[in-house]
Amino acid sequence: MKTQTSSPLQFRNMISEFCDKRVMPHVSEEILDKIKSYLDDLIVQHRKPPMRRSQIHWLSFASESRIDCELTEKLKNIIRPALEALIRWVDNGVPQPDQIAPKHKTPDRRPAVRLPKPDRASASVRNPVRPRPSSLASADPVEEFPEPLFGWTEDPQTFQQALNYHMRRFGETYWRLHRAIIKQHEIFDIRTISNWVNGTKTPRSADSFDVLTRIEKRYRLPESYFKSRLPHQARSIYSHELGSDVSAAERRRIVWHLPDDFNQLSFSKREEILEWVRRVIISGSTDYRQFQRKASKQRYAIRFPGISYGAVLSPRTRSETLDFEGSVDEDDFIEDPDLLAGVVDAPPRLAMEMANLVRFKTATLTSVGFQRNGVWGEETASQKVEHLGLLFGALAASPDSEVKGRGIPLRKITFGLLVFPGIWDWYLQWREKRRGFYTSWEQDMLSAILGMTRPETGWMWQHAELAKGLQPVPGLVTVRRRMI
After folding, report:
1. β 55-56/51-52 pair status
2. Which of the four pLDDT bands, split at 50, 70 and 90, describes residue 91?
3. Residue 182: inside a domain, yes or no?
4. Helix 348-362 to helix 378-396 angle, to the nearest 10 degrees?
5. Share of the chain above pLDDT 90, in %
6. Are residues 174 and 66 in the same domain?
7. Which residue stretches does the UniProt record annotate as biased composition, category Basic and acidic residues (predicted)?
8. Does residue 74 sit in the same domain as residue 185?
């Protein structure tokens, strides 16, 4: 393994031949395939094997190559030359285009001209420095649409696996791929593609999605092939060229409705798209946007002053103006500037229950005798308080109001109601009728209540006293009397 080559394809062939001749006689076919595949990935990623104190870390090597049960001392000595050659190859770096010299030089056939015999004193005259060949004469040209080394037989499901697989199909390193798809006048860091290959980062910006499109065209892949395998599909793309006149708040709303290739469109086309988004989406022309504007004026949530993390305490509403068993006069409410702050403070018992729950889920250590599964951070705790306030507010709101709530008297609202399926059945149907569809919000709420009622670790499961305050709710919660 002393021969050193700079071409990734030649080096891969050399490593593959080494494995067939030296490794294959000592391992099974399955182990051989794992070793060859792992070495192949290292070459494609232009990465050294795992090292520790300048030595090969065999434990990590066995784990990454998935041969930990088969890696004997004898096998280590057999594989070592290939890994050492790989380390030297990576240290030498991938040759730049202007550093690649032709293997065979064409002799100069012009007639020789006799020159005077030089003096022996000058070494630089005896050995003149030859100029490097021009980059135009590169022996490693980049093809626009290269041919694959093998057929497309696998369908990786993650972005990193898919990118590595197709780079391996075409025998390309991240350096060569960057050189092929990034133009000379463009600025796109080569380390970005390296991070994609290693799985440390994923594309988020508009420029990155443009590069993904170029890779798909180069490898003749379906449109949005890589994008469909990215995690966090609900995230929006950033770095759109919207101009300095677009505020940060407006930008956050607009980017959700822009195409991925927005930056590549003409200026007039981009202006046309921005005008349409502002007119149709932002201004409220769509049905859902009109619902949002209308719903934001219908305040019905129960608020918990002093419990919401970082919340500004809103003015109290006079309790004598509220009659949850009858109609509600909107003029009696105090206007609240907070979107989810609500219109009525929680009664003392419900406020104490909420405070107990938040303390249980946010404390560094639980109280003696209690168990807990999972901790809420500040943001999560604030969100749960708001969401539960909306739920309790919907249950308490009058059926005759625009909210069309359930009309449960405020004194009957307690956490104990949340264990009854009828409560959730009504609430989910109410949410669907109000909005027209379900979202992940409902799923998160159901997950939260399942956690609170989980045996041994759930907060409600460990507080049986919540049942003492339960009262019947017609149609939702009934009382079963035991027959004596």
Report:
1. antiparallel
2. confident
3. yes
4. 150
5. 9
6. no
7. 108-120
8. no
pLDDT digits (tens, 9 = 90+) for 105-143: 444 444 444 444 444 444 444 444 444 444 434 445 678
pLDDT band at 464 (very low <50, low <70, confident <90, very high): confident
465 in the same domain as 386: yes
What pTM was computed for the model?
0.40
Residue 29 pLDDT: 84
The answer to the question of residue 117 being in a domain is no
Q: What is the pLDDT of residue 386?
A: 84
**Total structural domains in the chain?**
4
Asked if 25 contacts 75 with a C-beta cutoff of 8 angstroms, the reply is: no
Q: How far apart are CA 333 and CA 278, in angstroms?
A: 33
Host domain of residue 262:
248-283
Tokens representing 300 are 């019905």
Residue 389 three-state SS: helix
Are residue 214 and residue 332 in the same domain, yes or no? no
- Of 196, 180, 178, which Cα lies nearest the Cα of 188? 178
- Do residues 175 and 266 share a domain? no
Distance of alpha carbon 454 from alpha carbon 384, whole angstroms: 17
Q: What is the DSSP code (8-state) at residue 237?
A: P
Residues 348 and 452 occupy one common structural domain: yes
The answer on 327 and 275 residing in a single domain is no
Which segments of 141-300 does DSSP mark as H helices, in order?
159-169, 174-181, 190-198, 206-218, 248-254, 267-276, 287-295
Residue among 4, 10, 65 at smallest CA distance from 37: 65
Residues in the chain: 484
| 149 domain residue, yes or no | no
pLDDT at 348 over 90: no
Same domain flag for 322 and 431? yes
* Within-domain flag for 135: no
Count of Cβ atoms closer than 10 Å to residue 14 Cβ: 19
Residue 235 has pLDDT above 70, yes or no: no
User: Average pLDDT, stretch 154-182?
Assistant: 89
**Nearest to 385, CA basis, from 410, 406, 356:** 356
What's the average model confidence in pLDDT over 380-409?
A: 85
Q: Are 176 and 8 in contact (CB under 8 A)?
A: yes
For residue 467, the model assigns a pLDDT of 86
- What burial class does residue 49 get, using C-beta atoms within 10 Å of its C-beta: 0-12 exposed, 13-18 middle, 19+ buried? buried
